[in-house]
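Any chance you could type out some protein's one-letter sequence along with its backbone structure tokens so I can compare the two?
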Amino acid sequence: MNNIVFVVDDDPAVRDSLALLLEQENLVVETFASAEAFLAARRPVRGNCAIVDIRMPGMDGMALQAELARRGVLLPLIFLTGHGDIPMSVRAIKSGAVDFLTKPITGSALLASVHAARLESQRLYSQAEASQSAAARLASLSEREREVMALAIEGLSNKEIARRLDISHRTVEVHRARIMQKTGAETLFDLARLAETGGLPN
């Protein structure tokens, strides 16, 4: 099920009040009393986000954020805290949190953050899909084609590439044509962008 807002907080009153507020906005909500329970549940998908209490017994919010990152889970987090902790909020935001809100919070502030987090989830998944697609296209290239592509992106002419790789000018032309065909790139700019998106090392 898409577009779920997860609420992870050890205080049942907070979980209930947040769930009520979000459900009134026709959002699907799942609540968890601990970070451990949330991690044991299921993997988030596109459109999901989580509202997480920063201070909880056992695994706290920051540790949960780190564990999600370690697992490669694309889940935007909104942190809640009962104490205004500036250094902690800075660390959380730098680590990718969408927002850091201090209790008690207004409904409008929370809903604005949830909206931003859901948009961020869509962006993260679209970015990941683009990266995977680009990487798959780049994987179809031979080692020599990768070498030619890297030099072409650097701005070298076919003659310069031929000299650098000690191959003929005609062979470079053939390689470049195959590279464009395999990757679907129409211009050198497209090729450079594809290499960057696909994580091709420089």
